[in-house]
Amino acid sequence: MGKSYERIDGRLRTFIEEQRVFFTATAPLSGEGTVNLSPKGLTGSFAVLDERTVAYLDFAGSNAETVAHLRENGRITLMWCAFSGPPNIVRVHGRGEPVFRDDPRFPELLTRFPAIDPAHHGLRAIIVVTAELIRDTCGYAVPFMAYEGDRPLHASRFERETDETLDAYFHKKDHVATSIDGLPGLPLPLPPTPPAAARR
Length: 200
Prior knowledge:
By secondary structure, the protein is α+β, with helices and mostly antiparallel strands. The protein has helices at residues 10-18, 65-72, 106-110, 153-158, 163-172, 195-198, and strands spanning 3-5, 22-26, 36-40, 46-50, 53-58, 75-81, 89-100, 125-137.
């Protein structure tokens, strides 16, 4: 049976932080718009900020659907499921906000992710989510799968980019500055990496 929680702590927090992959789901307000579901999982790219707030790093890619949906309406659901050990699924339903490179909060938020070098992944934003509903359910139908390691491909692809070449890369993509449905996505031109972040 499903159970609701007031905060992310104790066993619930431990479960979330131990999972190697999680999923984000967002949608535009329009009933005709495109629902987006994305996997996330580079080690060190997720953090519990407090009992009601989590955050993850938004890296370079060919789309910016989550960013666009959050800029329009803020709704987001995060989901973790156990692929090993006891079956469990945890969902955090809440309001999300993309914190961009030129936001004064960006450098301080980045300190919550000490295992990640932002220069290696073309970091675009930090997504901060405030929980409104926290629930877990059984995961009886989720298969057992073994974690083998993080793929090195993202870092090897983007670590050679400068702020200027990364901005040019985003400008060439159809759905970075605007979403599939035409909503504003990543603000361009891309702000430079904050000096404090660049020195990490």
